[in-house]
UniProtKB/TrEMBL annotation:
<comment type="function">
    <text>Catalyzes the conversion of 7,8-dihydroneopterin to 6-hydroxymethyl-7,8-dihydropterin.</text>
</comment>
<dbReference type="InterPro" id="IPR043133">
    <property type="entry name" value="GTP-CH-I_C/QueF"/>
</dbReference>
<dbReference type="GO" id="GO:0004150">
    <property type="term" value="F:dihydroneopterin aldolase activity"/>
</dbReference>
<protein>
    <recommendedName>
        <fullName>7,8-dihydroneopterin aldolase</fullName>
        <ecNumber>4.1.2.25</ecNumber>
    </recommendedName>
</protein>
<comment type="similarity">
    <text>Belongs to the DHNA family.</text>
</comment>
<dbReference type="InterPro" id="IPR006157">
    <property type="entry name" value="FolB_dom"/>
</dbReference>
<keyword id="KW-0456">Lyase</keyword>
<feature type="domain" description="Dihydroneopterin aldolase/epimerase">
    <location>
        <begin position="4"/>
        <end position="117"/>
    </location>
</feature>
<dbReference type="InterPro" id="IPR006156">
    <property type="entry name" value="Dihydroneopterin_aldolase"/>
</dbReference>
<dbReference type="Pfam" id="PF02152">
    <property type="entry name" value="FolB"/>
</dbReference>
<comment type="pathway">
    <text>Cofactor biosynthesis; tetrahydrofolate biosynthesis; 2-amino-4-hydroxy-6-hydroxymethyl-7,8-dihydropteridine diphosphate from 7,8-dihydroneopterin triphosphate: step 3/4.</text>
</comment>
<keyword id="KW-0289">Folate biosynthesis</keyword>
Length: 123
């Protein structure tokens, strides 16, 4: 399957279980792999036959910088759902969300979650 990939998009959000996370917020980085048939756009050289990177960024930004969620898993699920709603060409998506410096005991560079969804998961 062909892919459109956006790496290390950075956003500021207020997601987490702890009150300080909801109050102070923190940085999140997001990677997405969007699976679609890109042969038509490769042949036509027409953006209408592909998935616009700028629009992908805007969709992800709206979710991550939007309503606070307790779990990063919920954020990722909403990102996936929103991408399927925005792009008819999208067949499957992988979403990775990285949360640097989580406020939990121990020393971590980051924690993250990754989900993979197909269009039929939402039919």
């Amino acid at each position: 399957m062909d892919k459109v990939i956006l790496n290390r998009m950075m956003f500021y959000g207020y997601h987490g279980l702890f009150p300080e996370e909801n109050k102070l917020g923190q940085r999140f980085t997001v990677d997405v792999e969007l699976m679609a048939d890109l042969k038509p756009s490769g042949t036509s050289d027409n953006m209408n036959d592909s998935i616009d990177y700028g629009q992908v960024y805007q969709v992800v930004q709206k979710v991550v910088e939007g309503e606070a969620k307790d779990l990063v898993e919920s954020v990722a699920e909403q990102v996936a759902q929103s991408l399927f709603q925005a792009f008819d060409l999208l067949k499957a998506v992988k979403v990775y969300i990285d949360k640097p410096g989580p406020p939990i005991p121990g020393y971590y560079e980051s924690v993250g979650i990754e989900i993979y969804r197909e269009r039929q998961d939402y039919d």
